[in-house]
Specification:
There is one protein chain. The protein contains 15 helices and 13 strands. It is of the alpha/beta class.
């Protein structure tokens, strides 16, 4: 079945697509034997779209399936025994900003179509699927295996915010105070960027992407737009009014209507195509923002961090993306 731009942009830009149909890790189901637990306070109750979930004692074998759920758990001191690698990093399934966080590698679980048998074989006592599609059948099947923390209200289509993700996972792990500290750390990093670039305040931005299927732009509430708003920018109002595609966090834009991307700043990145397919695109070159140097194309680690949006990735983005934006839109 042909995936829409939304599916590509959301799950892959991600790199969801590569791993979404890939098989799990090569090791047997118990390869990540150790797991880890933090000394938290229990019981804890987490509010989800599927009802309140109570965790009575500290989980010792956590499986993290949602987008950036594993890195969030790692940031809170818990090493999942199973995890999904949404951006096809390979290895432990984490970005370079989180390398070395595992004492023992996790079992890598498929993304869009996880093997429930492989998950069950890990004998988890807690499953995290917090930034996920919100599919009820998926949630029900996971809940049959172990206590599962699904999406929050309104978090369908991977629209769980970073704040919600950190709050829910830290609560489930019994360390809500540590979660608040982590959220504050990310907020402070973004605030520092905004304060050191006052010229960005109130300027419009388009978070754009291109795949082999065409162009798209992310809507307000998606991680990439949230990041840029944290730097002081505001969402392009034209993009915000466009019809949202089936996955719910971006809008398809035809080449003939690429001028809808026009903004004070455009931040674009490729998904499974070479970045030159953006920079050499005739319609892209015709954009006023491009001609005036107010558009940047990112790739590699910075694109992955910008897309993933885990706390570690967010701090990496706050350190590495602003200098690139500064070249396009001076912040002073």
């Amino acid at each position: 079945m042909k995936l829409t731009l939304r599916a590509l942009a959301g799950f892959a830009a991600l790199g969801l697509l590569l791993t979404g149909c890939a098989s799990g890790g090569d090791g047997d189901a118990q390869s990540a034997e150790s797991g880890s637990a933090v000394e938290g306070t229990f019981p804890q109750t987490v509010e989800t779209a599927f009802g309140d979930v109570t965790i009575d004692e500290a989980p010792e074998r956590v499986v993290a399936l949602g987008w950036a759920d594993a890195e969030t758990a790692l940031a809170l001191g818990v090493q999942p025994v199973g995890a999904s690698d949404w951006l096809a990093f390979g290895g432990d399934g984490v970005g370079p900003w989180a390398e070395g966080a595992y004492d023992e590698s996790p079992e890598i679980i498929e993304t869009l179509e996880p093997s429930y048998e492989a998950i069950a074989a890990l004998e988890p006592d807690l499953i995290l699927d917090v930034r996920s599609s919100g599919d009820k059948d998926r949630y029900d099947r996971l809940s049959e295996i172990a206590t599962t923390i699904g999406i929050p209200e309104g978090g369908e289509s991977y629209l769980t915010t970073q704040d919600q993700q950190v709050e829910m996972i830290s609560t489930a792990l019994g360390v809500p105070e540590k979660g608040e500290e982590l959220r504050q750390e990310v907020e402070d990093a973004n605030t520092a960027v905004a304060e050191s670039h006052p010229g960005w305040e109130g300027k419009t931005v388009t978070a754009a992407t291109k795949t082999s299927e065409g162009w798209g732009a992310y809507i307000e509430g998606s991680n990439r737009v949230d990041t840029l708003e944290g730097f002081g920018f505001v969402q392009n109002p034209v993009v915000q009014e466009l019809p949202v595609d089936a996955l719910g966090f971006s809008a398809d834009i035809s080449s003939e209507e690429l001028d809808k991307m026009e903004a004070d700043l455009i931040v674009a990145f490729p998904i499974y195509i070479d970045s030159t397919e953006i920079t050499d695109d005739p319609q892209w070159k015709e954009l006023q923002a491009v001609q005036e140097g107010r558009a940047i194309v990112i790739d590699g680690d910075i694109s992955d961090a910008y897309s993933l949006g885990s706390p570690q990735a967010a701090i990496y983005t706050a350190e590495n993306l602003p200098p690139l934006i500064e070249e396009a839109v001076p912040g002073q």
